[in-house]
Amino acid sequence: MRVVVLGSAAGGGLPQWNCGCGNCRRARAGDPAVPARTQSSVAVSADGARWVLLNASPDLRQQMAATAVLAPPEGAPRGSPVAAIVLTNADIDHVAGLLTLREGQPFALHASARVHAVLGANPIFDALDRARVPRVALDLGRRTPLSDAAGAPIGLDVTLFPVPGKVPLWLEGGRAEAELAGEEGDTVGVEVTDGRRRMLYVPACARITPALADRVRGADLLLFDGTLWDDREMIRQGLGPKTGARMGHMSVGGPEGSLALLEGVGARRRAFIHMNNSNPLLAADSPERAAVAAAGWEVASDGQEFRP
Ligand code: MLT
Ligand code: MN
Ligand code: ZN
């Protein structure tokens, strides 16, 4: 199985257009310790020929142009190795790239019924003609062979599993904080297997549940929510009023962080992804980066390939 990181940053990317935080300034200046990053998405393939994208970021056009394996095949006027897309929620940084794929190309669009309902309520997504781009609702917890637009299997099975999260920011609609957790299926993680190896993609997670810890155990690769190092880092840096908890993202550091809570859960290879530009992990020379490395974690970078 091949897993290519198309983008490793959270919504906004690094640098974010309007951000003057330390990381954004270093990335803008070309500091090699803080390379620029696009918004998170990964491509997975069993055979290197047909690929599924996990989420479609607003940077998808740039990501595909930078990724040789996703180029149209030789000898045909139109075509794409991308056979399918799987969505983990309806956040802008995970679905806006669908609009980039509006050129009459068939692929299958897989998501939970809840996420499909959000897309279905937004006519702009009808830019993807449903005759060419079938929308397939996946049952939570059920392992399903991934198919392309014609229903042909692409050699990968996928399981969507619910994780604690929140409704998309753009759908909050003034609701009270207590009502933002959303319903089951609003936020999911994805497990992908080629029958031999098993990888998990979890770019948003508010809490580690026992079910999630069980699923992580023994995985060959875990790509996990690395949005913030510490719950209050955006407030401390003067970037905004929100905590990570308010945004539906658990922190990496601290006694309640993913680094501590996933310790010993034992995914063979593990990396953080979906880092917000405020996160000190993004600087290769930070003590936080050294701490995660010492605990056996990587920080995924754009263009990186895993072969679990
Ligand atoms: C998030 O991960 O919390 C969202 O991407 C926020 C957003 O839509 O900007
Ligand atoms: Mn996001
Ligand atoms: Zn920034």
What would your notes on this structure say?
The structure is a single chain. The chain contains nine helices and 14 strands. It has helices at residues 22-28, 60-65, 92-95, 113-120, 210-216, 233-236, 244-247, 258-261, 287-294; strands spanning 2-7, 41-45, 51-54, 82-86, 108-111, 135-137, 144-147, 153-162, 188-193, 198-202, 221-225, 270-273, 297-299, 305-306. The protein is globular, with a radius of gyration of 18 Å. The N and C termini lie close together (6 Å). The protein is 17% helix and 21% strand. A hairpin with a 5-residue loop joins strand 7 (144-147) and strand 8 (153-162). The model has no long low-confidence stretch (mean pLDDT 97). It has 308 residues and is α/β, with parallel strands linked by helices. The site of D-malate has 9 residues, from helix 3.
Pattern of helices and strands: EHEEHEHEHEEEEEHEHHHEHEE
* Gap from first CA to last CA: 6 Å
Which ligands appear in the coordinates?
D-malate, manganese (II) ion, zinc ion
Give the mean pLDDT. 97
The backbone outline, from C-alpha atoms, is globular
Rg, Cα atoms, Å:
18 Å
Query: Helix tally?
Result: 9
